[in-house]
Write a structure and sequence with these properties.
The chain is mostly helical. It has one domain. Helices cover about 80% and strands about 0% of the residues. The chain contains 8 helices and no strands. α1 runs antiparallel to α5, α2 runs parallel beside α7 and α3 packs parallel to α6. The longest helix has 28 residues.
């Protein structure tokens, strides 16, 4: 049972990070949080994956304060894996990949969106602690007593404002990703849940 959960967890993070990398490479705008990490990397230095880890650590502390509970230590492993994988894809696998032409960029963005959403739906099957970004949404919901959609919107707008401040890659892709990830995860989740239960 644990082996299956770990397999879903690691596979999901691998696919998720590949999707994030494709959205960045599309040059049409990354998701708000990924745009923030790219902006921080460009403005201050360090790799995008390093900023995934740093921002994740900051969010773990913020989430603990908002939820009035101990920091989610296990989530540190998640952000270390995701940060490392994003740098792996960006620096070693797709470092020479530079889509040209609007149609090709749109295809890359759409593929990135699909992989990103699929990866989230897979990693959620493991029932392990959430990525700090997802936990932040729940912490906002708890603190402000709003529904999940409002909490997600607040979290995404927060990241978007910060990404703009640090000159992150904001574009039409950012809006598409922000609006589409939730529905796509909802689409992928049920069949993956059935698959996990079958294998368990």
């Amino acid at each position: 049972m644990h082996a299956i959960r770990i397999a879903f967890y690691l596979t999901g993070l691998l696919i998720l990070s590949f999707g994030v990398t494709l959205t960045i490479k599309s040059d049409l705008g990354a998701g708000p949080w990924d745009a923030l990490n790219v902006g921080l990397s460009t403005t201050i230095g360090l790799t995008v994956g390093s900023w995934v880890i740093i921002v994740g650590l900051i969010l773990i502390v913020i989430n603990a304060l908002l939820l009035q509970e101990k920091p989610d230590v296990f989530a540190i492993f998640t952000i270390l894996i995701v940060g490392g994988l994003i740098d792996f894809w960006l620096l070693y696998v797709l470092n020479q990949f530079d889509p040209t032409g609007l149609l090709f960029k749109i295809i890359v963005l759409m593929l990135g969106l699909i992989f990103l959403s699929l990866g989230i739906a897979i990693y959620l099957q493991a029932k392990y602690p959430l990525i700090p970004i997802d936990r932040f949404m729940l912490a906002i919901q708890h603190r402000l007593k709003v529904n999940l959609m409002v909490a997600k919107t607040i979290a995404e707008i927060t990241a978007l404002i910060l990404a703009l401040l640090f000159k992150g890659p904001i574009g039409i892709g950012t809006i598409i990703i922000a609006l589409s990830v939730g529905p796509l995860v909802q689409l992928f989740f049920p069949p993956l849940e059935r698959l996990r239960k079958k294998w368990s």
